[in-house]
């Protein structure tokens, strides 16, 4: 796989590293293993290591480090825990990786206001662990135990987004270190505001290209009185997808509705030892609400599913059963890889208006059959969002080519249906050409904003769109 | 009241008007009455008339007009129906007002996807009228029958925001004419996306300073199975506000919860002929959901209210009763003015974290008593947002001064509680100094974005923040 990687300027690199070493000592590392790890994410994209890694401990330190980089026009790549899926952390122009995973303090819990303030390196599981005794929880769940900063940077979402929204909807305010080292707070803590440009939303999804997110004020939610999960299997993909579509259109406030196709269910059954289920298209549901409300939601959805030919709901009401079910869902990726030892996963996602979802999925699967590839499908289908994971032999160039060609066709199909090239993985450097195809007139506007805020193009360069 | 207004360059004005007249004929007006009307909004801010008004009929026409203005570096001010509240339409540097009220077509209703596409001049009531037979509705309701374009521009919200969010949350995509006349679509129609910068959210709330919004793709919702409204009166403001706070913290998905203080209730009772109610602090509730869900929500909230000393709920379940109740709420402004013939209203709003709301309101009311002014209070208190309307004699300079001083103290109080200087009215030119106080480090970032997208500062100049 080709990568458009260019080493950084040698003088800039030496000067910046010397200054950073002097200031931060052993927390500035140029060791090869550490650099390599910090140029690697969970995608199929090749590793591109940064020249050095700085383990930051505060916003002020990030600011100091960025100022040194800015003075040398030397790139800066923010890093959480490396779970990005489109090469977001690859140091395409060399430079300094700023690892914020040590900035992992929960700074405030404002239980009365249903918000918290965290450092960017706090992971979503760590936050929920911290909140455990407060009756509150943070619902956004992209599967990986990503950092909150990374989730902001890629506008992450996941299984709960159909009910609770994405990171776009759940960030109240950000503290960001800009390309010149200035520290900017984007908003106050009020739940809504009409005061000026929405800089919070400008940084959410900017993938490190406009600044380094160091602190996040987040919405949290009261743990619902009742939560229950159910599994329903279907004779074919269309009836499963149509059950989901009708559920959304009926206005049932379902908390999660996840689709797994036959290939993915087969993998999950054997990997996660799920009992009493078959390798058939399946929906995993979760309902949140009052006890009566949850029963009412579930009855409505069970009725829709039955009309579509679905099985009776198999319930997981006890917390441990719910956990097992969602762990199986979260391990879908590893379950898929386990079907083919030695393989590598190539995950990709698209999102379409829900009226086109069944058509998009059916055509994609039909096209897949013709390629002979193994690529299980999972989807946050309540949002019109689905994923394929191509399970490929990384040394087989022809398999890679066929996967690439199929993925390209899938994205173009989604775009032809007024969808987006990525519902939640982000663009990184893996989907730049598709972002350009998706929003051709918008790219020059994005580029102008980038140039205004990062005139020397040092913030995560080579990502999202070309600068010329 | 002083206004920082500067006439536009005479040569630019003459050249641009001649070109616009040649192209658009009678739809370019320089008549004084029309100009005056287009420099006037519903605020207390003095009218500043534009040099000319163009009645646009399409995105392409807006683009052509902006190109003529851009060629002459002559200002452009977008105009819907003139319901802004912070002088948003005042032509502070002269120039062309582009009136989009004639662009009032609903272009698409995608019922299956719960979205619509409208021209910017469609008003919210017109949209709901259009949707009447579809089982869908658009919930955002700022009171005034504003245009959807104007509501986007000021990030409007209103009574339903506590359940359905603000314009920030309900716009899927915008078509915008940029400062050089280019037409940009900001996003596709998918419900979520991680594809590039969130330009949609950048334009929502930009108050015409970055471009002219001409088309909007909006979320709509299925009309709930059951809707019912209730009124509850309280012995004092604190118990009313605390009822609201506890309702939100309990997670009841209330659709509306509106506070009216004793002064406002007195005005509404006499203006809207409300029977069986007293001039006491009052909450108006509305519940949406299934029949059982609405009953359950109402019982929970009634329980909370009783503990706080509230009266039994007075119900409005029939559509006509609900309509009467919400009309009384929407007419609160006119009811307040009717208390003092010949007066003018000066509405203002702030928003604070909900844990500080009771304190903020109580201190504001206490401070008000000392001024001797009449200023009823209403609030979208579920969001921490409240309004005062100073009912003043426009010819009494001392009253104006006292109102201004009180309003300033209220905003500074909200800021000291980590709140915002405006929850939903916007900044216009009325709150520029407070935006600067609220987000001091963010202003240079906003200014850089503005300079990048409107280098000649022709888009609604003189609003939001100073350019130097």
UniProtKB/TrEMBL annotation, chains A, B:
Residues 46-223 form the FAD-binding PCMH-type domain. Gene3D superfamilies: 3.30.465.10, 3.30.70.2740, Vanillyl-alcohol Oxidase, Chain A, domain 4 (1.10.45.10). It is an enzyme of class 1 (oxidoreductase). It comes from the Bacteria. Its cofactor is FAD. Pfam families: FAD-oxidase_C (PF02913), FAD_binding_4 (PF01565). GO terms for biological process: lactate catabolic process. Its EC number is 1.1.2.4. Keywords: FAD, Flavoprotein, Oxidoreductase, Transit peptide. Belongs to the FAD-binding oxidoreductase/transferase type 4 family. This is D-lactate dehydrogenase (cytochrome). It comes from Thalassobaculum fulvum.
